[in-house]
Design goal:
Helices cover 58% and strands 3% of the residues.
């Protein structure tokens, strides 16, 4: 009986199969055990189906098919496991992204709520202040009188900054005059007549000066505290 080469294994030309191990190796696509130059040596060690007693041939074939099925099942299990692991990895990444987005959304919502709360507090503070025209005119005003006016006209959260500037500029003297520059009043407006935009009585009414000062600080620096920050860095505002 002649022998032919099938992926490095010796088989009978018509009816032969290799031993059980060789059959499984071919079915699984394994790497040949020997190259073509060593084929004859490999073939010499191969058991042909024809060499196996007839009564045992069916058992050998059954065992071979069983091992092939086991090998295929094992490969399928491995593929399924790999697919499950990849799915789990993708799901974990998706969950992590969702949690991160949820955390960012929650933080943004908290920031917006805090911003809204602050704005409402500022509006409430500003709505509670008195206008300059609501004060009765007097012949003169003490420092305590002027400070009391300012407390009622300047938003509570801005009063200390406003007070710091007035302390440095005029020590709360609404008639303070700089002989060199001509700056005048609580905020040392330069020139002093700029305060006429707040009222014609700007020279004698501290409430008018306070009104002008607030408008100036808000317009140029955003707030008295913004003006105070600038003053600290430059010693003027």
């Amino acid at each position: 009986m002649s022998r032919i080469s099938v992926r490095g294994f010796a088989v009978a030309s018509a009816t032969a199969v290799t031993t059980v191990g060789a059959v499984v190796g071919v079915a699984a696509g394994g790497t040949p055990a020997a190259d073509d130059n060593n084929f004859e040596a490999a073939a010499a060690d191969t058991t042909l189906l024809a060499d196996i007693p007839a009564g045992q041939q069916a058992q050998v074939q059954t065992a071979s098919l069983t091992q092939q099925a086991d090998a295929q099942a094992s490969a399928a299990d491995a593929a399924a496991k790999k697919s499950a692991e990849e799915s789990a990895r993708l799901q974990a990444a998706k969950d992590a992204k969702s949690k991160k987005q949820a955390a960012e959304d929650r933080l943004e919502a908290e920031r917006e709520a805090e911003k809204k709360k602050k704005e409402e507090a500022e509006r409430a503070s500003r709505s509670s202040v008195r206008d300059a025209s609501s004060f009765s005119a007097q012949g003169s005003y003490s420092v305590a009188d002027v400070q009391a006016m300012a407390r009622q006209m300047v938003p509570a959260d801005q009063f200390q900054c406003f007070s710091n500037i007035v302390n440095h500029e005029s020590t709360w003297n609404y008639r303070a005059t700089n002989p060199s520059s001509g700056a005048y009043g609580l905020m040392q407006a330069l020139p002093g007549h700029k305060m006429s935009s707040a009222g014609a009585d700007w020279q004698t009414n501290p409430a008018t000066q306070i009104k002008w000062g607030l408008s100036y600080m808000d317009g140029r620096y955003g707030s008295p505290c913004g003006a105070w920050s600038f003053w600290q860095a430059n010693n003027w505002y």
